[in-house]
Specification:
Elements (H helix, E strand, L loop, with lengths): L1 E3 L3 E7 L2 E7 L7 E2 L5 E3 L22 H11 L3 E3 L2 H15 L4 H4 L26 E2 L9 E3 L2 E2 L6 E10 L2 E4 L15 E5 L4 E8 L5 E6 L10 E3 L5 E6 L14 E5 L8 E2 L2 E3 L6 E2 L4 E5 L2 E3 L14 E2 L8 H4 L2 H11 L7 H8 L1 H13 L9 E7 L4 E7 L10
Parallel strand pairs: 1-20, 10-18, 15-17
Antiparallel strand pairs: 1-5, 2-3, 2-4, 5-19, 6-19, 7-8, 8-9, 10-11, 10-16, 11-12, 13-14, 13-15, 16-17, 21-22, 21-23, 24-25
Helix pairs in contact: 5-7
Amino acid sequence: MVFIPVFYVAQKRSGTKQYFYVSDKPKTGMTKHPGSGKYVGRYHMNSNGYSATGYSPYVDMTRATARNKAKSVGSKFHLYDFATYCAIIFLYIVEFANWNCQSKIGQGYTNNNNSSAISSGHTDSMTYHTGRASGTDDKTAVQYRWIENLWGNVSQWVDGFNANGTTAYYCTDPSKYADNTSTGYTNIGTLPGSGWIKDLTVTDNGLLIPKTYGGSETTYVPDYVYSSSSGWRVLCVGGYWSSGARAGLLYFNANNTSSNSNSNISARLLSNSIIIAQAFPHPLVKIMPRGRELVGHSNALAGNKDVITIPKRVGFLYEKMLDRAFITETIRLAANGKKKRRSVRRVLANIDAYAEKLLVMLRTDSFIPSKPKVKRVYDVSSRKWRDIKVVPFYPDGCVP
């Protein structure tokens, strides 16, 4: 899981220019983004409901099925939602000041000749949190701030958004997420017909939807919107393995009924509360007369001269911990001096499988510490009996 810190936003419109502002602290005139402070699955969901490397994405399910699968992982989990989708877009725009994520980061796995999805983890070997994996652009995975394939490979269901024809509704309360309803939802505006996105509706709390179409793959917002003129519809985003230039962070498909399932649509986990996660550092600052603020400015037609980036500080160590090789070495170190134990020998004999199992536990927050057993020992140095608490070698004794 990748943590998106709490941040505050403001936006304003001046003619054809749209301005976006971000702060890591409350500021007058700024609102907490409802999609911030969340934990997003680094990878598309697998058939077990987890976000883990080396798996085919879970496909051929309706949004409702994906919603239930996410909930089955644990009480803290639900399906990737509209508010968090918008939060990631907001941060991307402030950082890159360019609507074309395919040109700034990578096209993603979107080549028109691709015929099926690739497994998760193709960006694992990357040393930087944003970019594309090695290989031919449009045939490789991409990641933004550690989150893999936000566009390309497979589209992903988004919860908390329903459309009745072109009338769009959103909700930020996971307990009210449901299909084909506006109960508990708020009207956010009207969707355009299908086509290249030209303009957006942006709310004061940082939510956004396509407003008009009429652009192209190189102008305005160069991603595609699909909508329907009638009937209840649900949302999937990103684009899939052969979407080509239509794919992107703002690819917006609100044309599917709630009964639809497809081999090119998957899902992504989301949680409001978790312990182990990778960080989503956002190093943008604007130097102000009174000091530094996490404030950014973006203009679809301008460069990013108003945004100054600072070097990433040492830290954000979770991504180093949540690595299969690191966990394997941790198990070996934990076994020092204990290799005569049968339980330790069993783990070492199949260390790769046990390391993978522990990695999944940590990434999905499913590790639950065992209740210690009390063992009475005689302390020769103090000539006293002492009670010590002992936990199992695996997994407790191997957790980094």
